[in-house]
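TA notes, week 10

Several of you asked for a full example with nothing omitted. So below is the full record: structure tokens for the whole chain, then the designed sequence directly under it. When grading your own attempts, check the secondary structure regions first.
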């Protein structure tokens, strides 16, 4: 999807920024889940699943026209 949106001259820059951001967030998630996991497995996984579903729906609605072109 990003391949169709981003101009050819900027693709490497955009993808490197996305990769850097995702790599920098990983340690934060390790620390966060390190504190949360001992509390209650079910609730943590439940709320994370709901959050991911929510983000998926928002992402799909925002880029609806791009999905139709594919």
């Amino acid at each position: 999807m990003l391949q169709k949106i981003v101009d050819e001259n900027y693709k490497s820059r955009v993808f490197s920024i996305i990769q850097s951001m995702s790599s920098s967030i990983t340690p934060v998630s390790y620390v966060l889940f390190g504190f949360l996991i001992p509390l209650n497995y079910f609730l943590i996984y439940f709320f994370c699943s709901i959050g991911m579903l929510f983000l998926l729906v928002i992402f799909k609605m925002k880029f609806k026209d791009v999905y139709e072109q594919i």
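DSSP finds four helices and no strands in the chain. Use that as a sanity check on your answer.
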